[in-house]
Design a protein that fits this description.
The chain is about 65% helix and about 0% strand. The chain is mostly helical.
């Protein structure tokens, strides 16, 4: 990621403007070489397993695309601690 992109990401990162950390924020954190806590790693893994299980279960193209968009929104806006719940851990 070039310096200009890094600057923009930092400026608009939800965590820096008072928002909560999302799964996408954790992915970005991990990708940039920063270590994640055990809870963060667990939430990230739970979300990925949940996402794949849900998408693999869909057989209709339109339903797949709708679910894909819905999961993108969840990954970007939901607090990562949501994915520490048992309902996501079972996937």
């Amino acid at each position: 990621m070039d310096k200009e992109t890094q600057k923009i990401v930092k400026k608009y990162a939800k965590a820096l403007i008072g928002g909560t950390l999302s799964v996408n924020d954790l992915s970005e954190k991990e990708f940039s070489g920063k270590s994640l806590s055990v809870a963060e790693k667990t939430a990230l893994a739970n979300f990925e397993k949940y996402r794949l299980a849900r998408l693999n279960a869909v057989t209709d193209d339109m339903a797949f695309h709708d679910l894909y968009r819905q999961l993108q929104v969840m990954a970007n806006l939901a607090d990562y601690t949501e994915f520490l719940k048992e309902e996501y851990a079972r996937y």
